[in-house]
Write a structure and sequence with these properties.
By secondary structure, this protein is of the alpha+beta class. The chain is built from 3 helices and 8 strands. The longest helix has 12 residues. It starts with a strand and ends in a 9-residue tail after the last strand.
């Protein structure tokens, strides 16, 4: 369960998410499989409230690996049409996680 916590260094108050709340699902695409095999990088859809440090902590705890770097992207929803109705898909947040050379995650 998420809880409110005050950061001791900055003094700001914010929500602390549990690891299973941070990572929503892995992104298994052709490009993602190539990055995982060649560059040891993995893509995840994450919570829009999650920070880079939240993602690092969650991946290390859930998959028992060592994370070197986390890069995040805020993706905008795409316009979609169904018959005469127009709308957008939801906005979402993506994280690319680079692991240590000894660490691997097996999705399959």
């Amino acid at each position: 369960m998420a809880r409110l916590n005050k950061n001791k260094t900055t003094g700001k108050q914010g929500i602390v998410l549990e690891p299973h709340q941070v990572i929503l699902r892995p992104l298994v695409t052709e490009k993602g499989v190539h990055h995982s095999s060649e560059l040891n990088q993995y893509g995840f859809e994450i919570s829009p409230m999650a920070t880079k440090s939240d993602v690092k902590h969650a991946v290390e705890e859930l998959f028992n690996v060592k994370v070197l770097k986390v890069r995040t992207q805020a993706r905008l929803g795409k316009p979609r049409r169904y018959r005469f109705r127009q709308g957008y898909t939801k906005d979402w947040k993506k994280a690319i996680v680079t692991l240590d050379t000894e660490s691997r995650i097996d999705f399959f």
